[in-house]
Design goal:
There is one protein chain. This protein is mostly helical. The protein is about 80% helix and about 0% strand. The longest helix is centred in the C-terminal third of the chain and has 38 residues, at about 190-225. The protein is elongated, with a radius of gyration of 19 Å. The two termini are about 30 Å apart.
Length: about 230
């Protein structure tokens, strides 16, 4: 884990990392300003806003990385550890997204409920709500990983990244809304249905994680071959 974080820090600038962390805090403040603690509404809004924002910022870090004609720094091509550092940086990016979304979707709602807005009547933290939150978290992580892979493959320009974001936000929104709709309408079957969603979304997130790493390695090898 620390190796991934170190590689990510080496690949990204300090200003970039600070800005993304400030945006994450901004999303948390937005959640509080909405006047909700543990409520279903922010779970519909915040993941989509986070995914859309991070997709835009991904262009400035990994934009075009997986494109056939995309550029990789000569530093990484000439270094014997270039391939390892690059793939570890991609892993670190996914890991840090997972940590930020864990804070936004799990830690922060509980803090709002019991510390920041304690006067709000708490929603029972029963099994149904727990698997609901887990399903939203896994859906958001899988969606972001998938949309970033697509952006890195075909998004050579910032305009293309924006177009990809607009086109893919519809299926991404649907993917992240399914747990919320299930939570509202599943009735007595809420726990088993949401448990299935957690398993499916978690498996998808893991598969996309390994796909992102594998495609990055293949793209690096291809660019290195084309260079020499």
């Amino acid at each position: 884990m620390m190796k991934c974080i170190k590689a990510y820090r080496a690949y990204s600038s300090k200003m970039f990392r600070v800005l993304i962390n400030l945006l994450t805090i901004g999303f948390a403040i937005l959640w509080a300003l909405l006047g909700f603690a543990i409520d279903i509404t922010p779970f519909l809004m915040i993941p989509c806003i986070y995914i859309m924002t991070m997709m835009i910022f991904d262009f400035f870090l990994f934009g075009g990385l997986l494109n056939k004609h995309g550029r990789i720094s000569e530093y990484f091509k000439s270094s014997t550890a270039g391939k390892s550092v690059l793939t570890q940086a991609v892993k670190g990016d996914i890991l840090l997204h997972a940590v930020r979304m864990f804070f936004l979707l799990i830690v922060w709602p509980i803090a709002l409920e019991f510390i920041v807005i304690p006067e709000v009547d708490p929603m029972p933290l029963g099994p149904g709500f727990i698997v609901f939150v887990a399903s939203v978290y896994c859906a958001a992580l899988a969606s972001l990983t998938g949309i970033e892979i697509i952006g890195r493959i075909i998004g050579k320009t910032f305009q293309m990244y924006i177009l990809i974001m607009y086109v893919l936000m519809i299926p991404v929104s649907i993917l992240t809304m399914i747990p919320s709709l299930t939570f509202v309408f599943a009735g007595t079957f809420i726990v088993p249905v949401l448990t299935v969603l957690v398993i499916v979304y978690a498996a998808l997130a893991i598969a996309l994680y390994y796909a992102s790493v594998a495609i990055t390695k293949r793209s690096y090898d291809q660019k290195l071959t084309d260079t020499y």
